[in-house]
Amino acid sequence: MRFKPHVSSLALLTAMLAAIVPATAQQTTLDTLRISAAGLTPFEEKEIGRSYTVIDGDKIQLSGTPYVADILRQVPGFAVTSGGSQSGLTDVRVRGGEANHVLVLIDGVPISETWTGGVDFGRLQVANVERIEVLRGPQSAFWGANAMSGVINIVTKSAKDDGFHGSVAGEMGSDGTKMTSGSLAYGQDNFKASGGITLRHTDGFNISSLGSELDSARHVDANARFSANITPQLTLDGTVRYGRMSGDSDDQDFATGTVLDTNDTFRANELFGSLGLGWVSEDGVWFQNARVSGGTIERGSTNVWGETVYAGDLYKASYQIGRNFETPGILDSTHTVTLGYDLVYETFQHLVPSVMDRQTRTAHSVVGEYRGTFYDQFYLTAALRHDFNANFADATTYSVSGAWQIPNTGTKLHASVGTGSTNPTMWEQFGYSPGSFTPNPNLTPETSVGWDIGIEQTLLDGMVVLDATYFNQTLENKIRDVFFPITTAINVPGTSPRQGVELSATVNVFDGLAAGVTYTYLDARDPSGALEVRRPQHSGSLNLAYTLPEIPLTLHGEVLLRGETKDALGAKTFTLPAYAVVNAGLNYQVSDQVEVYGRVHNLFDTKYQEVYGYNTQGRTFYAGARAKF
Question: What is the CATH number of the domain that holds 141?
Answer without folding.
Answer: 2.40.170.20
